[in-house]
Request: fold
Amino acid sequence: MRPGAECVITLKSGAVIRGLAVGIDADSIDVVMKKTPGNPETTVTVLESEIASVGQVVGVSKAKRGWVGAGLGALASLPLSMSMVGDAMLIGGLLGAWIGRNTGDSRIEIVMQR
Reply:
């Protein structure tokens, strides 16, 4: 796992920490937890002795897949929309966004487990 990767760390206590790994040493991992409406962005240092498993998030998020699908759908329907600008492009974009959001998913790949 490289620094900057999105990771999920399960502690021996059962707590789960999710964020970006910014520093990885032999005895600890520094994780920047995402900002939520009630909490600011914080950096947490997790000691190696507290870790039960470490996983890396792989794949693309739903929002990113939706935008890519919308762009591809609009591009694919471009030749069909020559009669009136945008009439088939809008339908192609919406269909592409729907297909893009409903295919594939991000998953957690376990890097280390005890």
Notes: The longest strand covers residues 16-24.
